[in-house]
Amino acid sequence: MKNALITGANKSIGFEETKQLLEKGYYVYLGSRNLENGIEAAKQLKDQGFNNVEAIEIDVTNDESVKTARLEIGKKTDVLDVLINNAGISGGQPQQALVATPEQFKKAFDTNVIGVARVTQAFIDLILKSSEPRIVNVSSSQGSLTLANDTSNPYFNFKGAVYQSSKVALNMYSVILAYELRNTAVKVNMVDPGFTKTEFNNNRGIGTVEVAASRIVKYALIDNDGPSGKFFSEEFYPEGIECPW
């Protein structure tokens, strides 16, 4: 049985990602910043008949929390087949480049970029032991410089200096990570779940969590001939076509 860790998985898209991987026969470590919330989420899944799920406390912004999570998972398995860096924040308001505070930028980057690096570095030893290791970093079409400058983009006027900057940085980190792992079996990709109706955007989105999660899980399941170091946004580009930068 393959193992997966998903950060920020106690609700919304992360919760649905967990469910979809469970349906595929994975054992999933459901990462949650608050352990009680994680345990409750795992219980909901177990009540639906999914027993191969376990809540893991992990705050991606905290070194000790990530180290502890690595130790706990390491007691249970020597291999991690899938890591989905799902945890993320918007950075709050205001988002204007001339108004947003330094503290907003720091918090957003700590979760959306540094947190991804922190978790990936902590678990890479387990990932490298997998025969088909996959890392999926949840990004956004808002992290595409091309789309940000495309006036035909329906979200062209949705500008957020804090959030968008962090996703651009995440994409660059992911590209470099994929390059550094190019001589291994690890596949690293960035996936935009689409403008999804969740608490993250005050339910202003139009897509469902089921579709959003399926877009992400797809790249956790790619075979050894699949892509790496690519950015995908099916909301804008057909299935399998890389999103322009």
Explained architecture:
- The protein contains seven helices and seven strands.
- The protein has 245 residues and is of the alpha/beta class.
- A seven-stranded parallel β-sheet has the order 3-2-1-4-5-6-7, sandwiched between helices.
- Helix 1 packs across helix 7 and helix 4 packs parallel to helix 6.
- The protein is globular, with a radius of gyration of 17 Å.
Main features:
13% strand, Rossmann fold, 245 residues, 7 helices, alpha/beta
Which of globular, elongated, flat, extended, rod-shaped describes the shape?
A: globular
Radius of gyration, Cα only, in angstroms?
A: 17 Å
> Quick one: biggest sheet?
7 strands, parallel
Structural class: alpha/beta
CATH superfamily: NAD(P)-binding Rossmann-like Domain
Could you name the ranges where pLDDT drops below 50 across 5 or more consecutive residues?
none
- The overall pLDDT average reads 94
Which percent range describes the beta-strand content? 5-15%
Class, according to the CATH hierarchy?
Alpha Beta
- Quote the distance from N terminus to C terminus: 36 Å
